[in-house]
Amino acid sequence: MFDQSMQDSRSSATRGDGDERESTAAVRLEGVSHQYGATGGRFRSSDERTVTALRDVSLELPSGTIVGLEGPSGSGKSTILHAVAGLLVPTAGRVELRGTDITELSDAERTRLRRQHIGIVFQRFHLLPSLSARANVALPLVQAGIPRGDRRARAERLLEAVGLGDRTTHLPGELSGGERQRVAIARALSTDPDVIVADEPTGELDTATGGDVLELLTDIGRDRAVLVASHDDATLSVADRVVTLRDGRVVGDG
Predict the structure, then answer these.
(1) pLDDT digits over 171-214, tens only?
(2) What is the pTM of this model?
(3) Where along the chain do its domains lie?
(4) Listed residue (234, 137, 132, 232) closest to 188, CA to CA
(5) What is the CATH number of domain 3-10+62-88+108-253?
(6) pLDDT of residue 122
């Protein structure tokens, strides 16, 4: 759908840390467990109630691969997404991004790494209603300190790439659900991340519109690691492999 323009966008991207992109960038989880109600692997009190969300999960996401996560509510899908994105630190195990164990980083270091290398696509878009499509896409670049002119040009290229070149100045309330999700995907791509995590990316969309979004994710997955959590068979069908979770454990991977 947008192969050439997307490649042009990537080649012209400005990265906050000046790193060269590794050809085999990947995420790796090793023995990851997580309990909600625990801090740093220790309980705050002997009678504290805890919920075990993940149990000894190991998983690898090579670049150029889309990995789907399936399982019932409460199986641990969202917790894995949050761990990969550095939004939580698991109570046990390692989460490696580009060879760096992000569980050993400070909150500030983990935030910096996430802004540079992780793109997040939410089910309900999470766009700022008072900002135009272009400004929403450019927002992560503001946080990265990219100059205004470069931010604007990058956002416009990405919106063109996802088929919204004529919607750059529209507010989210003036866009359809599918258009808003495309803006959210463009925003996730704005920092040229190594990894995209997507939580039910078609959950708010009708079948036809969801199909367009899945086509976008397929294109994105050609040179990035993409992790998608979903209950939807059509969404999972674009994955190169599907990991099945039950009660916080991996019970299938293929």
Answers:
(1) 999 999 999 999 999 999 999 999 999 999 998 899 999 999 99
(2) 0.85
(3) 3-10+62-88+108-253
(4) 137
(5) 3.40.50.300
(6) 87
Amino acid code (one letter) for 187:
R
Which residue type is seen at 108? A
Q: What is the mean pLDDT of the chain?
A: 87
3-state secondary structure of 187: helix
Say what angle helices 133-143 and 148-161 make with each other, to 10 degrees.
Answer: 130
Tell me, what's the pLDDT at 48?
Answer: 59
The kind and range of the H/E element at 226 are strand 225-229
The string of DSSP letters for 108-158 reads: HHHHHHHHHHEEEE-TT----TTS-HHHHHHHHHHHTT--HHHHHHHHHHH
Amino acid at 64: G
Burial of 161 (0-12, 13-18, 19+ CB in 10 A): buried
Per-residue confidence (pLDDT) for residue 193, from 0 to 100 = 93
Contact 188, 196 (CB under 8 A): yes
Annotate 51-87 with DSSP letters as a single string: EEEEEEEEEEEETTEEEEEE-STTSSHHHHHHHHTTS
| Dihedral sign (CA 118, 238, 138, 193) | positive
d(CA 162, CA 164): 6
Write the single-letter amino acid at 175.
L
71 closest CA partner among 191, 158, 200 = 200
